[in-house]
Amino acid sequence: MVSGLPATSRCPLCLYGKNSYLPKVTTVTQEGTERPVVLEARQITKRFPGVTANDQVSLRLHKGEVLALLGENGAGKSTLMNILYGLYSQDAGEILVDGQPFRAKSPHDAIARGIGMVHQHFQLVPVMSVVENVMLGNEITRWGFLSRRKVAEHILEISRRYGLPVEPYALVADLDVGAQQRVEIIKALYRNADILILDEPTAVLTPQEADDLVRVMRTLTAQGKALIFITHKLREVLEVADRIVVLRAGRVVGETTPREASEASLAAMMVGRSVLLRVEKAEAKPGATVLSVRDLQVRDDRRLMVVDGVSLEVHAGEILGIAGVQGNGQTELVQALTGLRASEAGSIEIAGNNVTSANPRQISELGVAHIPEDRQRDGIVTSYPLTENGVLELYYRPPFARGIVRNEGAIVQHAKQLVADFDVRTPSVHVEASSLSGGNQQKFIVAREFSRDLKLLIAAQPTRGIDVGSIEFIHQQIIKKRDEGVAVLLVSAELDEILALSDLIAVMYHGHIVATVRNGELTREQLGLLMAGGGE
Amino acid sequence: MSRSAIVAFWERYSPALVPVLAVFTALVVGALLIGLTGGDWQAAYIGLWQGSFGTPRALVDTIIRSTPYIICGLAVALAFKAGLFNIGAEGQLYAGALCAVVIGTTMQLPPIFHIPLGIIAGALGGAAWASIAGILKARTGAHEVINTIMLNYIALRLTDWLIKSRQPLLLGDPADTSGSRTPHIAETMRLPGVSLGNTNTLHLGILLAVILVFGVAWFFKRTTLGFELRMAGTNPNAARYAGISVPRSIILAMAFAGGLAGIAGAGEVMGVRYEVSTNFISGVGFDAIAVALLARGNPVGILFAGLLWGGLLTGARLMQVRAGLSIDVIKIIQALIIMFIAADQIVRFLYRIPQRKAGDETMVSKGWGGG
Ligand SMILES: Nc1ncnc2c1ncn2[C@@H]1O[C@H](COP(=O)(O)OP(=O)(O)OP(=O)(O)O)[C@@H](O)[C@H]1O
Ligand SMILES: [Mg+2]
């Protein structure tokens, strides 16, 4: 019937405008693999209203290997994994586990067949302990009763065996992201997963933690587990993968191995064009001081002084990058600067206004945009449509409101503009933000913050979870804003990102700025040393 | 239609279908219960229908009875959209009713002023009462469920005392020897209405309820303040990030909710009873939670859910006469409806309605339709 056509049979690529052509990519097949296939997906197709997220995707996973899945934001990686894990069901195609057809109706089925998954956004209950989180959903079936002690012992055993340090009785809310992720992995292993899906596990990790994870992955494969590993960091892929499969717009466009690939070739395969892995930028022309922080002290939720006497200045037309291992006070510093957290002492001035005790609205109205570090917590309301998310901070101002009445037309128009400007992959601006892929949610937030009339941009982890092509674009946009005279405070856990963008680099360690240098004055290694506390 | 179009259709409309099927299922189970205990379920249901919607007279009674359920249902839903469980519509209704009585018994004004003044007094009374819970929540984090329940008790006892006290004489009617009611309000503050043939007078309250239904829907959909309250309820962190004061939103949402319940109380005083008595319409504020739940917090849905609720209660009497059943059968059916709504997995299983997508788990624990 004709009316059904648009949703189902239109070329999915046509939705995506200019990058939508499919160049020929030769498929490199791995030969002589002795290992048995533990999981096979055949011709999987999955459609969402207006999008074909997976289009006849086939792939194989062998015992003891790491299969890396690469692809742009919205290419369909998480969707495919969610199908394997029983969260979605495919419209067509079949899945074989150990050669047997398998259709998971729920994660419960998948777990029963030995498939575990660590999600892009964690699924832990923060107010519960590690033990309770691991037991959750498994309580009655396995033990017949709740025995914390036994479970804790089992957790410690897994922890020792695979090198995953955790404290079984700690509350999840008190753990840092790295530890939470280890809990997620332990949870899967506790359920005897032989196939482990890791959806962008390294996006939230410090480089040190990411290295630890790579080690864990090696231990797991050495013990016969099979892993599917999704990441946007090409270096990790080359380091840890046995085979690499690349998706674009829902289709498999190529398969390769780290031996045959390079970062540049992988990037080109993902995006369909060659990507500049470095941004071009001219010398900065700093103007007047926009942000001036003096002796700032901020406490965290546990009342610890995590920002202890920070002073810094950012000028118009200049990018100050704050380098540092996560958890050294950067989060609280940004919260204090944006009015989300009260400071204990010191002063903050923005464009000549003392905003030390101002609220977020007052600060925002001075022309301060904030790309928050935790996008799903602060940056977006996942159950609201993109239209409303596009005016999260500006909803009350003209043209988005006249008096107290919101102006639907202007709101929709604005969202469309954001989606177009930053190439956010979505079938419409009326869909819930939660239906966007993780990276596209991030792109939408970045687009929204960039669309404002800016004096100061505070960007915390602006490219977390974003694909290489879009990183290139966002980096260019940040430079462009700088050249237009915006002051930029960049906080990033990626030293590469700091080095690529910053004019000045401030290294933060234990709540102090231990060094402020021009970019280029210190080598990567020297900076790394400072970040690790070598400057004290 | 293609498969995905059908799925899309289901995803869009199954939320509205589940409550309807829940009601249907509850009626079927009710019929089974009546039949199995030796009753005549057909006579009972015919009586129920005729006594509720079947005749103009019954219909008018149903509408009058439903009005406070609709308005209080809105009071519960409005708070819920802002992330608050308002269990206190009952107390807020009493607070509003008392304020309206004070205006109605102490003043003589032309109706054009007196009627709006009575409604405003009711709204302010309810709002003030609810604000106590709102302020406690916003300033100290004290949970609104506990506080609104406590405020219900206080409101009920306070009403009792205000009416019954003779020394000093407070709101009681000196002419009433039993000491169980207030004086009647002035003629000028009584809601006008129409009587169609032999029906009771259909007062303006229902019109007010309909206006409020669409007003609340418009408020959340189209106003900036509605957006703020919604966002503070859905994701307080994002609300703070967006420059919204979450404590202020909590206080405002409770005040608005209380204002609605207060209007319901004032409407009962001004349209039906013209007084507050010790056995004033108790229970409405609690049943309103059920009404809001049945409608999944959707204002227009509340209009229908409220009418259904009032209809069941109004029709119960004729059902009792026709089938010789206890009026409590209606309470059982109402309880079954709520059960099937709360445990909508049962309904979805019975009628093979596909699961909602991930992340949209149980409405009761998460939210009524979110945006
Ligand atoms: N629940 C959903 N409802 C509607 N559309 C969806 C849903 N989940 C995903 N999509 C769409 O399917 C496509 C693929 O999304 P998916 O999350 O699989 O991407 P991804 O490859 O994991 O991207 P990222 O790298 O950004 O995480 C996207 O275009 C997205 O808009
Ligand atoms: Mg993803």
TrEMBL record, chain B:
It is found in: Cell membrane. It comes from the Bacteria. Signal peptide: none annotated. CDD domains: TM_PBP1_transp_TpRbsC_like (cd06580). Keywords: Cell membrane, Membrane, Transmembrane, Transmembrane helix. The chain crosses the membrane at residues 16-38, 58-80, 115-136, 201-220, 241-264, 302-320, 332-351. It is a multi-pass membrane protein. One of its GO terms (cellular component) is plasma membrane. GO terms for molecular function: transmembrane transporter activity. It holds the Pfam family BPD_transp_2. This is ABC transporter permease. It comes from Candidatus Viridilinea mediisalina. The lineage of its organism: Bacteria, Bacillati, Chloroflexota, Chloroflexia, Chloroflexales.
